[in-house]
Fold:
Amino acid sequence: NKSHQYQQSTMKVTLSLALIASASALAPAQDSRRAAFAKMAGAAAAVAPIAANAAVGESPRFSVFGLIGDGTSYSEGAAYGSDQAGKVYSPYSVYGEASESSLYKPGRGEDAERKKAILAETDKRLAKLPAYIEKKQWFNVKDELTRYMYETRGAVRGLAKTTKQKEKAEDFFAAIEATYLNATLKKQDACAKAAADSVSTLAAFVGSL
Structure:
């Protein structure tokens, strides 16, 4: 028993010495890592004053909507229009107010021509609907009415100026909505009639321009 206890004690001492040796072997690596982190922290601390654009003894620079404080401080950015020659649209905008010197002028001829080109393309797309309806390809009918008709609605509303034109525009909108609804309900005859109405009402609207 005494011999067995002596062997156990010897094993514990040996294991303890081995752990201490391992820890001692790792110590330089840990010290190296600590030194590396210390250098990185020192570098960051050295760069921070440069990034903040601060000088020793200088008070913090700030600005409140370009009205109070220093409008040229980094926190201000565009200084809410205080560094621009003309008046801006709002204190939060970099764009000036619309005027005669603006690049965009409402009512340009090229805008109207672009909208009319959209209507011409719409007419071509509407011409595809009868074949889709005949084959009961309801998904194609609905896709044709959604992937381009957003542009169509904008063009129609942009071109409709008079009361008569606006009424014709509403007739066209009602026709394409009925086409979409009947395609969803899979009502072939009603969908075919609504599709034909969409073509005729679009032609009537274009003819009123």
